[in-house]
Every structure is written in C-alpha cells, then in structure tokens.
Design brief:
Largest sheet: none
Radius of gyration: 36 Å
Oligomer: single chain
Strand content: under 5%
Order of helices and strands: HHH
Number of strands: 0
Helix content: 40-55%
Length: 110
C-alpha cells in the first residue's frame, strides 16, 4: 500500500525537490547550465514517474437503457411525444388565418 501511495505522489515529490534545488542553485549563484540541468532533470523524472500503463480491464458490452431493444426487454413503452398546439397564437393582435392562401379580405364563400 505504501508503494502505491509513493507512486501516486512521486511526480509531486520530484517537483518539490526540483524547485528546492533550483532555489538552492540560485542562492549559491550557480551558472545557467546548472539551472537548466536541474529543470530538465526534474521535468524528465516527473514525466517518467507520471506515465501509467493503460488499464487492461475490459468493460462488458451491455445494452443501454436508451436502446429500443432494451426498452422492450425491460417492459417500457415507446416514448410518447407531446402534442404541438398548431392554433395561431398572437401576442399583440389576432393570429394568422387558418388558411394562409385565404386572406381576410376575401368573401366568406370563396
């Protein structure tokens, strides 16, 4: 269990150690190459310990509940869609005529 915890926090431990080494190198007035070497080593070690192998667990292929076949298997009825109200609805005045080709000026017998 301790190994798993150490492996989980290894990139963080390496990053903190690298920052501490950079601060120490700055305090000791080390050359630019020392700073770059510490930075590259820190990033390289952290990236090596952060890489994890892909998981090998394969999830079973099951039907989802949104599938029509599984809905029938579970005894669900097909979905019913709400009815759409097609009556004219005007907020500021009368709605449109029922027949768009028949204008209000036409006589009622047309």
């Amino acid at each position: 269990m301790a190994i798993l915890t150490l492996r989980r926090f290894a990139p963080l431990i390496i990053a903190v150690t690298g920052v501490a080494l950079l601060i120490a190198a700055t305090a000791l007035r080390a050359s630019l190459w020392v700073h770059l070497g510490i930075l590259v080593a820190t990033i390289g070690l952290a990236s090596l310990t952060a890489s994890r192998p892909p998981s090998t667990s394969v999830e079973p292929r099951e039907l989802s509940a949104s599938d029509a076949y599984s809905d029938a298997y579970l005894g669900r009825r097909p979905p019913t869609h709400p009815t759409i109200d097609t009556r004219p609805q005007g907020q500021y005045g009368p709605g449109l005529p029922k027949d768009p080709l028949r204008l209000p000026e036409d006589p009622p017998g047309a």
